[in-house]
Amino acid sequence: MNTLVKLEILRTLRNRKFMFFSVLYPGVLFLIVTAGAGKDKKLGGSDLTLVAYYMVAMAAFGAMTAVLMGNAERIAREREKGWVRQLRLTALPGRGYVTAKIASAATVSLPSIVIVLVLGAAVKGVRLDAWQWAAILVSIWAGSMVFAALGVAIGYVATADVARPLSMLCYFVLAMLGGLWIPFTTFPGWLRTLAGYLPGRAYAALGQTIEFGNAPHAKDIAVLVVYLVLFAGTAAWLYRKDTRKA
Amino acid sequence: MTATATTNGATGRTADSGVPVVAFTDVNKSYGAVHAVAGLSLELHPGETVALLGPNGAGKSTALDLLLGLKNADRGSVRVFGATPAQAIAAGQVGAMLQSGGLMEEVTVRELVGLACDLHPKAYPVDQVLAAAGITDFASRLVDKLSGGQEQRVRFALATAGANDLIVLDEPTVGMDVGARQAFWATMRGQVDQGRTVLFATHYLEEADAVADRVLVMNRGRLIADGTAAEIKARAGARRITFDLEGPIDEAALRALPHLVGLEVTGPTVRIRSDDADATTHAVYGLGLYPRNLEVAGLGLEQAFLALTEGAGASAGEQTAAGTGDDKAGKR
């Protein structure tokens, strides 16, 4: 099983085109979104600058996009080519497959997050304590695995053609409701309550709480862990149960 | 991997344990209105080399998918070494080569075979697997860059990465040239000599004739013949008797000839398939007929196969004829 994890990481690194776009995309997006914002403009009613808010939001959003889209499409394609059928003829347990796919996704998301944070500090002049930088990096990276697992599950439900639109839809809804694009504070009350139980919001909240100088809320971590188990469990079950021709 | 699976593995390898390697009991699988596999029952025993024949759409691939647990039967039971297919695979008892099994891309051949070895509970060393499959030469090449024949050998390596007790091959030599095919079967014989049970589906009947010690023929989801290649030929009417007759031909009298399996009359020409040409020919003279241009020729497995599968589908008379002496064909 370790060999599979190693190979999945290795082949992701070898796929230069995929790596290049997935890794740079969040950084570029961050620069575009914050192009018009002044460095000192504060987020309504707080000490935090708008640029810092978007830095964390875009790091999270970008990592989420890369792992969700990348996994869903690649897995759907592998299924169509019949590699997954071949793999199912080995003693590999379902969780082994899901673990390897999450690990390879994490290989992509880590550098993409680092780039956004470096751009924030170097180009946009975001200033945070050392522990905050470290905590933001770790929490966004760890949280991205929830969406990697969702990507595996989608790759299993959908054909290669449908995987892309379906994962796009998932991340639009999750990112929007997570307040990754529009500050969460502008949402009406009922929507905030609903969004609080979705993985997108909990994911965004991790980094943002740290930004405000607090430790992440236990509730957000719990929500993410529940979704991780749910998505990964579904994916592993689908891997073993997939009896369609695919 | 689990305790139960290991026990099964131990019993599966002892040749006389009585546990069949594979047991299908009244297995059914449909896709909508299409009965891909209909009431299939069969057993494979340790050490057998079994060819699975049948025209396209006969249900061979579905039967293999059911055997490997890639599909679930609608009805009936599929047991491999007395356990479920998934358990047998997890115990490393089954190696399989799929017809169009895709391969992992962006990795080298050696890396991919190394993965198969890593995942196999009773794996051989990677170098040994590469050498046995004859792929050491291009082991450092990327899987994406292989030719069709090379890919096929890599698939074979994946199927033989460990000490399997059963090897399942779906159309293993498709896309190989004659030389590669011979080399492939030479490798396979090595596996058989180690006491492995081998089941392979094929379109090349000469392969079944040369390699298999048992031949299964499927048509429309059913097993219509089961025996050695020689038996299959005999069952289909292994000999063809051709002659011309003058004057009106009494078909009913001809149809009553002993050992007749098939009859075809075109103008003055009579074509008979018989499983005992001597007796049938003798009886022709016994009818007081004087056959001209008499020819008696042996049928190859290919013609026997065609006779069997066409007979099972086309005319009812042929169907019963092909079924005579075949306890499995008669069952519906």
Automatic annotation (TrEMBL), chain A:
* One Pfam family from the record: ABC2_membrane
Q: Which GO terms describe its biological process?
A: response to antibiotic
Q: Where in the cell is it found?
A: Membrane
**ABC-2 type transporter transmembrane domain location:** 3-200
InterPro entries cross-referenced by the UniProt entry? ABC2_TM, ABC_2_transport, Nod_factor_ABC_transporter
Q: Which domain of life is it from?
A: Bacteria
Q: Does the keyword Transmembrane apply?
A: yes
Q: What's the protein's topology in the membrane?
A: Multi-pass membrane protein
Tell me where the transmembrane regions lie: 18-38, 50-69, 102-123, 135-157, 169-191, 221-239
Ordered alphabetically, the record's keywords are:
Antibiotic resistance, Membrane, Transmembrane, Transmembrane helix
GO MF entries: ABC-type transporter activity
- Example of a GO cellular component annotation carried by this entry: ATP-binding cassette (ABC) transporter complex
The entry's protein name is ABC-2 type transport system permease protein
Q: Which organism is it from?
A: Actinacidiphila paucisporea
TrEMBL record, chain B:
Q: Where in the cell is it found?
A: Cell membrane
Q: Gene3D superfamilies attached here? A: P-loop containing nucleotide triphosphate hydrolases (3.40.50.300)
Task: Identify the GO cellular component terms for this protein.
Answer: plasma membrane
Q: Name one GO molecular function term.
A: ATP binding
Topology in the lipid bilayer:
Peripheral membrane protein
Annotated GO biological process: response to antibiotic
Chief location of this protein? membrane
Domain of life of the organism encoding this protein: Bacteria
The record, for Pfam families, names:
ABC_tran
Descriptive protein name: ABC-2 type transport system ATP-binding protein
Can the keyword Isomerase be found in this entry's annotation? Answer: no
Mind listing the UniProt keywords for this protein, alphabetically? Antibiotic resistance, ATP-binding, Nucleotide-binding, Transport
Q: Where is the ABC transporter domain?
A: 22-245
Q: What is the organism field in this record?
A: Actinacidiphila paucisporea
> Which InterPro entries has this protein been placed in?
AAA+_ATPase, ABC_transporter-like_ATP-bd, ABC_transporter_ATP-binding, P-loop_NTPase
